[in-house]
Amino acid sequence: MLLRNRETGAARLLGACPVRPWPSRLEKREPIDTILRMFKSLLIAFILMGTLMAADLPSKKYLNLAAIKKMVVAAEAEATRQNVSVTICIVDENGALLFLQKGDGVSINTEEWAQKKARHAALYGSPSKDAADVVKSGNTAALSYPNFFPGQGGLPIKVDGQTLGAIAASGAKSEVDEAIAQAGIDGLLKK
Fold first, then answer.
1. pLDDT, position 60
2. Crossing angle (nearest 10°) for helices 174-189 and 65-82
3. N or C: which end of the chain has fewer CB within 10 A?
């Protein structure tokens, strides 16, 4: 029986020749086909490697909208309980504004003060009252520090030792402002 190669037209006798006269499947591949196969293999390897490396990245907690709403509700409840109207401010760990609400009948300057208290607490990782204590102790040079604000009422929001941001209140007595801010943090961290 005579077999014919469809592409080349070469013929051979079945069983007569142990060597195939036409190229095998691997020999027929074009160089571009081989390069594409190598590229696909490398691409898959890089994707798998990237996935494994991404698994090693640390996770970071942050203040989302639900957390902000919890804090605001708790802070407003404490302000109502104390029978005061205040401006409430929440910032992220970099001092960027996330929430600002001016209470009814509160002076317009409380917006700025609340933001300054919150930024100090977030960036320094300590209550803004600490800044007031530093200035009261005679270190007036601290007033030149960036975002340093010596007014009580701003508190850092810390979870597992990490500062996520800060909350501040302004418009009432300093102690009341701080109590309102603390109520906001307590509202977030309660189980």
1. 84
2. 140
3. C
Handedness of CA 6, 10, 13, 14 (dihedral sign): negative
The predicted-structure confidence for 124-169, as pLDDT tens digits, reads as follows: 999 999 999 999 999 999 999 999 999 999 999 999 889 999 999 9
Q: Are residues 172 and 153 both part of a single domain?
A: yes
Cα–Cα distance for residue pair 114/75, rounded to 1 Å: 13
184 occurs within a structural domain:
yes
- The tokens for 89 are 């401010």
Are residues 17 and 85 both part of a single domain?
no
Structural domain including 23 reads 2-54
Query: What are the structure tokens assigned to 106, written together?
Result: 């509160």
Query: pLDDT (tens digit, 9 = 90+) per residue, 61-80?
Result: 899 999 999 999 999 999 99
**Residue pLDDT, tens place only, 2-30:** 556 666 656 555 555 555 555 555 555 56
Short-list 59, 61, 60, 66, CA closest to 188 = 66
Domain of residue 113, CATH code: 3.30.450.150
CA angle 63, 68, 72 (to 5 degrees): 150
Shared domain check, 161 and 74: yes
The token pair at 44 is 């898959």
Element (H, E) at 154: strand 154-159
Q: Are residues 31 and 115 in the same domain?
A: no
